[in-house]
Specification:
By secondary structure, the chain is of the alpha+beta class. It is built from four helices and twelve strands, in the order ααβββββαβαββββββ. A hairpin with a 2-residue loop joins strand 11 and strand 12.
Length: 179
């Protein structure tokens, strides 16, 4: 019984590949996967630069690697790539306004933001739940995004017992929040 359902399900998926791709449906479906929210930052020409990212993942323990996926349309990402290093600051549940600020293109996002330099010099955002400072290892083309691999050189945790800011169904959320 399960095998026939799987075969039917697979057939439905394959059959749909011939139809025009529905971008809005794809966004809605992928929006059902809750993610953490981070700010990816660096220093370019002595100026801090950063953007909000929810596509961050631990990739390897040996060697210690992470991956992230910035949009090619980002104006901040090329500046970070040129710097050759970056820090991922995992935002805590009280940092939604900061996430919104860094999600907007242009402007001085760091005005009034407290931060300190990590081992690479990249900004570690104050109040973050955790942070991972990396050297840029690899950039791979991935459609309208790039897949970026970073080698971890330093990491740390912020406030003990803090909770993460989440992104779910196109909104910033707190753990346990319904909506």
């Amino acid at each position: 019984m399960v095998a026939s359902w799987s075969a039917r399900r697979l057939f439905c998926i394959v059959a749909r590949l011939d139809e025009p791709f529905d971008v809005e449906s794809f966004k809605r479906v992928m929006g059902c996967f809750a993610t953490g929210v981070a700010i990816v930052s660096s220093i370019e020409d002595a100026v801090p630069v950063g953007f909000t990212c929810q596509s961050v993942v631990s990739l390897s323990l040996d060697p210690p690697l992470i991956a992230l996926a910035p949009a090619k349309s980002s104006t901040s990402w090329p500046r970070i790539a040129r710097a050759g290093s970056f820090c991922v600051s995992v935002l805590s549940e009280g940092q939604a306004e900061l996430a919104r600020r860094f999600a907007v293109s242009g402007g001085d996002k760091f005005t009034g933001v407290e931060w300190s330099p990590g081992a690479t010099g990249a900004p570690v955002i104050a109040g973050s739940l955790a942070w991972v400072d990396c050297h840029l290892e690899l950039i791979h083309d991935a459609g309208d995004h790039e897949i970026v691999m970073g080698r971890v050189v330093e990491m740390g945790e912020g406030e003990a017992g803090g909770l993460p800011l989440l992104y779910f169904r196109s909104s910033y959320r707190r753990m346990g929040e319904r909506g």
